[in-house]
Write a structure and sequence with these properties.
alpha+beta; homodimer; 11 helices; 2 domains; two-stranded antiparallel sheet; Glutaredoxin
Chain lengths: 256, 256
Amino acid sequence: MTIIFYDIPSTLPENAWSLNTWKVRYCLNYKGIAYRTEWVEYPDIESHCKKLGIKPTDKRDDGSDEYTLPAIHDPSTGVYLAESILIADYLDKTYPDTPPVLPAHTLGLQVAFVEAFGNSLKGLAGFILPNVCSALNPPSMQYFRRTREAAFGKKLEDLVPQGETAVQKWATFKESLGKADSWYATMDSKLEGELKNTQFLMGDTLSFADINIAGYLIWLRIVWGEDNERWQEMLTWHGGRWKGLMEKLKKYETVV
Amino acid sequence: MTIIFYDIPSTLPENAWSLNTWKVRYCLNYKGIAYRTEWVEYPDIESHCKKLGIKPTDKRDDGSDEYTLPAIHDPSTGVYLAESILIADYLDKTYPDTPPVLPAHTLGLQVAFVEAFGNSLKGLAGFILPNVCSALNPPSMQYFRRTREAAFGKKLEDLVPQGETAVQKWATFKESLGKADSWYATMDSKLEGELKNTQFLMGDTLSFADINIAGYLIWLRIVWGEDNERWQEMLTWHGGRWKGLMEKLKKYETVV
């Protein structure tokens, strides 16, 4: 049976843009599991999840439940589930004949990795959130602006760094991505010849850690656009690490 | 042949106290590799490493090389090596018949884990660094005080939180350790019955991630002393997670 994958739409040609939902799409495509996407606008996510019995994934500062996408429904098991790495774990367990994205009992390590990577990214928000907002359909756009401006305490447009601040924030982002590059580099150093610099974080095995990073990268590429000069610059960073990762995952970019 | 393991001595009954050197001792004991410890006081570490050709592990803020322990010398290969996780990787590769601490190509993930865990620990320094200083031999004590007071910009004694600040910092530390507990909990949720809550971050396989955390725990236990009320309180935290981890690693605590 076909899994139903809940994602957030946009006005962009790819429709799909969200970094977190992209992680699940990469997993589904990599595993070759049949699915179709149902598109849910931001203001409808909470009621959608409550109606289907999909649990909240977080608490807001005021203590109320927060509902987020990605989520899936698997008609073959009756399961409704949110949160990208939990969905990945569910897919690994339920479809053991597909390639695992959390191999060798690494779920706990991969959860820690996702947090380490997310926390290590500094300086990026102002460069991308205003573009995300502009790419959404009107109902989601209004919702996104209202919630993000409340969170940051300023207009989205005022988040965009200018002049010397922009130079510094961009350098900080590059440096923080360099930290992730160093995690790959410790694996590079174990490998010889051609494999070197062409592999995944777990060597020659793709895993959720790579997909997690690719989620960020494809988010930037789609929201900024392929020709954006910051994106083009990023492709040259860290010995082409991120360019190479995107090329390796290109075959799992299909939106269905 | 017997590996030589370079560690920093103290006035405490166990002699060994350093969280980072303990990680390597746990690895050596777990693997059952023959070794003996050579004790190097803090002010001698740089000259010791330079003399033996052990590379620096970091840069100081002023750009100069920083040399740290743990380090090892393996007479059977001629290798001299510093940094706990690199030593772990070397031991895994050089002694493939011993149980791996970086199983299933997880070096890159484990490096990220070590950083995530270290960065997630907030509020602890003031509770422990003055005790560390008091536990050292005079040459190391003077060195430790001078370098740490320069780094923090205040007397070690003034780092110790007082009154309400102490309550808050201790709660912050508990909360940050709770983050690591949640990484274990995602694995717990995969397990059934007796295994649940008795396992390691990679399920039933001990790995460097657990040893990394145990390094922090044994550091606190030894430097504070077993009867310290903060230590006794920590043993009750997070469903006994840390008490259980220490019990499972107790057989690898031998100092030789």
